[in-house]
Amino acid sequence: xxxxxxxxxxxxxxxxxxxxxxxxxxxxxxxxxxxxxxxxxxxxxxxxxxxxxxxxxxxxxxxxxxxxxxxxxxxxxxxxxxxxxxxxxxxxxxxxxxxxxxxxxxxxxxxxxxxxxxxxxxxxxxxxxxxxxxxxxxxxxxxxxxxxxxxxxxxxxxxxxxxxxxxxxxxxxxxxxxxxxxxxxxxxxxxxxxxxxxxxxxxxxxxxxxxxxxxxxxxxxxxxxxxxxxxxxxxxxxxxxxxxxxxxxxxxxxxxxxxxxxxxxxxxxxxxxxxxxxxxxxxxxxxxxxxxxxxxxxxxxxxxxxxxxxxxxxxxxxxxxxxxxxxxxxxxxxxxxxxxxxxxxxxxxxxxxxxxxxxxxxxxxxxxxxxxxxxxxxxxxxxxxxxxxxxxxxxxxxxxxxxxxxxxxxxxxxxxxxxxxxxxxxxxxxxxxxxxxxxxxxxxxxxxxxxxxxxxxxxxxxxxxxxxxxxxxxxxxxxxxxxxxxxxxxxxxxxxxxxxxxxxxxxxxxxxxxxxxxxxxxxxxxxxxxxxxxxxx
Amino acid sequence: xxxxxxxxxxxxxxxxxxxxxxxxxxxxxxxxxxxxxxxxxxxxxxxxxxxxxxxxxxxxxxxxxxxxxxxxxxxxxxxxxxxxxxxxxxxxxxxxxxxxxxxxxxxxxxxxxxxxxxxxxxxxxxxxxxxxxxxxxxxxxxx
Lengths: 537, 143
Description:
Distance between the termini of chain A: 19 Å
CATH class of chain B: Alpha Beta
Largest sheet of chain A: 10 strands, antiparallel
Order of helices and strands of chain B: EHEHEHEHEHH
Radius of gyration of chain A: 24 Å
Largest sheet of chain B: 5 strands, parallel
Low-confidence stretches of chain A: 503-523
CATH superfamily of the domain at 1-141 and 506-529 and 532-536 in chain A: Response regulator
Number of strands of chain B: 5
CATH architecture of chain B: 3-Layer(aba) Sandwich
Helix content of chain B: 40-55%
Largest interface: A-B, 30 and 28 residues
Number of helices of chain A: 14
Low-confidence stretches of chain B: none
CATH topology of the domain at 1-141 and 506-529 and 532-536 in chain A: Rossmann fold
CATH class of the domain at 1-141 and 506-529 and 532-536 in chain A: Alpha Beta
Number of domains of chain B: 1
Shape of chain A: globular
Oligomer: heterodimer
Structural class of chain A: alpha/beta
CATH topology of chain B: Rossmann fold
CATH superfamily of chain B: Response regulator
Number of helices of chain B: 6
Strand order of the largest sheet of chain B: 2-1-3-4-5
Radius of gyration of chain B: 15 Å
Helix content of chain A: 10-25%
Shape of chain B: globular
């Protein structure tokens, strides 16, 4: 198996034997000849195995899994190229739990399923996205030609909040001029228009396309203050209220330069919290300005051998010749897999804080390097407005206007002014609240005038919500909508149905072991999906 | 205990002779070559435990020499002496294995570096993971 290649397997993380059995016995799983493994969760257990599975399904329905821990593990691995394409899906027990955990959409989970829902639909979606194979989907009743605009949220992360500015990581190109941010914790908030101060095609914390730095649009001294205006006092109050939502910050930052990150498998279990990792495969994959700003305390460069492509001494030379090593900033640099000695490298880079080893970086060595560094350098606390991963204030929607063209109980098609990446997760509030993941179209669609025409799979609907959506579709097939507003939807559905589509919330808790089962059967010809366009997976 | 053989490679005959004289106590035998090509012939013929080499030479420079030596499957320690403007050659040399670099013309601490090179070349001291970790710990402690 070549590096960065994943195994066509599903890893089921959870304790529900019945649900696991439903997946293994799914006709589609058998038809597609996919092995299904099972493990209970314990810290670091997801990738603590020889092969990296292409699909991971985490079942949190019985509240026995520490969801914050799982999320941190997913975020850790999603930063590394070898694991970036692993597809994560989450299984919840009901709509309430799904609502509470919807913050996970911006952390690397792309699909939700509520137990009791149609398992074959879930398996089909998982295999389509996770394996990127051509899968046959059933034709469902479709409301076509809706042709109405609708404001939709792109699930994003509010990473940092300070009184003057915020930073947001999102699945949009870094060329946006302004963004409309909707903070989920303020239901009345219709979205604040933020001019983009700067942006970068690199994210530090969440597996998304870009980071945006946004200044609060405070009114100037001569500007009129209206009910929509954002005032400094308001933001200061928010920050005060957020106090318990801020993380303690990172103790230290570690940058790892390597062409292959397979050694990370199984390392998470031994890694302490509050270490920020930057995984870099080349000088292009980590812009110099990020390094200058983040100033990694420990840099581990796992060099490639001369005959291989990857991390070469030139990459290091490029970084350090850009005034990276300045007088005040003196990182420890560890160079692995080099036939040269520390002394030679110190003289080459004219920098004495370098140690070298001929051994390639492995799991054991990585753990030891972090362990020793931690004991030396763990006093620092660089906290500054970073929101906790599990803070309910962290998930935000970036509002975009879509032109909805088609809707079934499983797919929604729309035109977007902006280009969007496949597998970005969208948050719809109409006709009912649901999430949908952009996928390569499951049907051939007519692209008119080269517009950004997309299809997204609707998922994580409870039976109750599914009934309402079905009713809505049937209604508009026979009598089309005139406008896509809450009032127009209410008219089609009736207030009662809408009320039952709204769900309250509840809390989750902890724990886990390893068991393995598999379901490979006979070989079949695999039809791989051709993805043209930007993709997150 | 045998001291091991040293090969010195430089296109300046006077420097070759001076280095041979200065380092004669450290090695069993000292071989001299005026370019990389000649050095390679000696390496194929003789048992060499350490090579002291100018990085910038005509015919075959130090980088070409180290590439050829590694292609023969030899891990012999190479100490390069370098001058101003040799940064790109140094970058290339570390890919194939540089034991150390010494600045020309001062050649400070050359005896000490050659002695360590010979020791490694004789196989008296193989780098282990624990050596590396202790070097790493020392570096952290010096912060």
